[in-house]
């Protein structure tokens, strides 16, 4: 089993254990990442999980270009497309610890199945079907970095920047080691470990200094525009 996999997006390769964040402004931009990512996984024989917010799962399956009826991958359980509320609101509210528990259970089921060596998952966040508490959401994103090394997996988190607002970018930089920017996979110098993130939260230090915000925003802008 290789330690890398093709993201399906402009030939980008990710490493097993990667926790990647991408931003989009409309469904077309979202699907330019989401669909190739799933198509490459299905072609490679990977287990593919898609948690989609604001879109009927059947629409995602129908949009896949797999050279065959994509629905057969659902029947064979190689592909799962899940409505966001069914993944994130099982107890009626959004709780980071419960979501992590659900992910661990899903990965354990895949490993027990034995048919798949690699799991690739993509989550879309658009504040449509699920409007999470932001502190819980960021705690989830941070704690995912503890969970990812436990299984051979890659997780891509896609955020609708128009609905979340540009103010979330710095928080996403803190919680994702790698960013998908302009068709490139970029190492993120502003990532903080789960322990550091939790320590700041416990101290009530979730607010970021203006200087740090400005510096991170400039870095992201430069990476997006190609400025130096």
Present the secondary structure layout.
Blueprint lengths: L3 E3 L6 E3 L3 E6 L2 H18 L2 E6 L4 H7 L7 H5 L3 E5 H5 L7 H18 L5 E7 L8 H14 L5 E8 H4 L4 H7 L2 E4 L2 E4 L6 H9 L7 H16 L3
Parallel strand pairs: 3-7, 3-8, 4-5, 4-6, 6-7
Antiparallel strand pairs: 1-2, 8-9
Helix pairs in contact: 5-6, 6-8
Overall morphology: globular
Series of secondary-structure elements, N-terminal to C-terminal: EEEHEHHEHHEHEHHEEHH
Low-pLDDT sequence parts: none
Structural class: alpha/beta
Indicate how many domains the architecture comprises.
Answer: 1
Number of helices: 10
Distance between the termini: 38 Å
The percent of residues in helical segments reads: 40-55%
- Tell me the strand order in the biggest sheet: 5-4-6-7-3-8-9
At the fourth CATH level, what is the homologous superfamily? P-loop containing nucleotide triphosphate hydrolases
CATH level 3 topology: Rossmann fold
What is the number of beta strands?
9
Identify the CATH architecture: 3-Layer(aba) Sandwich
The CATH class assignment is Alpha Beta
What amount of the residues lies in strands?
Answer: 15-25%
Radius of gyration: 17 Å
Pfam families: MEDS
InterPro entries: MEDS_domain
